[in-house]
Amino acid sequence: MNLVTAIILAGCSSNPETLKATNDSFQKSETSIPHFSPLATGGVQLPKADDSYSLPNIEVKKGEDIDIRPPLIPLAIIQNSITKFDGERSLIVYPKQQAKLYNLQQVERLLKEEGISSTTDGSILTTDWAKTERIGDKSIEIKYQIEQVMTADVSALTVSILHMRRDGIIFTPNVSDKQYYTSERLNHIVLTLTTAYNKQLQDLSSTLIQ
């Protein structure tokens, strides 16, 4: 047996003492772990914790849920129109020639098709209770007031909230609610009328081509 063979056999030894020496080095070195004594302050008084800025131990009550849904604004869907929310109403102003499509009669017809009753007094239309289409609303209903205002050059539709209730109990909406729900209703009315009109034009064009 040469020297190389002897070294290999020694490395492959199954002697427990040899294996322990190789694989259990932690126990062998355990006695060499140093032990530290407490820090000597030399008579110096260490500062104590200052409670001046500690948070008081009080019972925290859950507040009202915060609405993180993005706000809604009136959209200028009609060509050459402008829109605004004035704190109470959402409105859209458009050229007077567009009033043949965007007027109270068309609005009343649309509401009727959607199952919402309404009454008209002159240039003001008042709806019956209507549910909102906002995701997350629970039992919220609104009575809207829709008005058409006309001048020599322009026409306008305005939407405001007459009454608002939740679970049958009437409450006063805040400005954020007024902006959202009046904008939602106005945008829905204008977009639906525009879509229906464009579809009529498309159908008419298809008929003429045939």
From TrEMBL:
It comes from the Bacteria. It comes from Haemophilus influenzae R3021. This is Putative deoxyribonucleotide triphosphate pyrophosphatase. InterPro entries: NlpB/DapX (IPR010653).
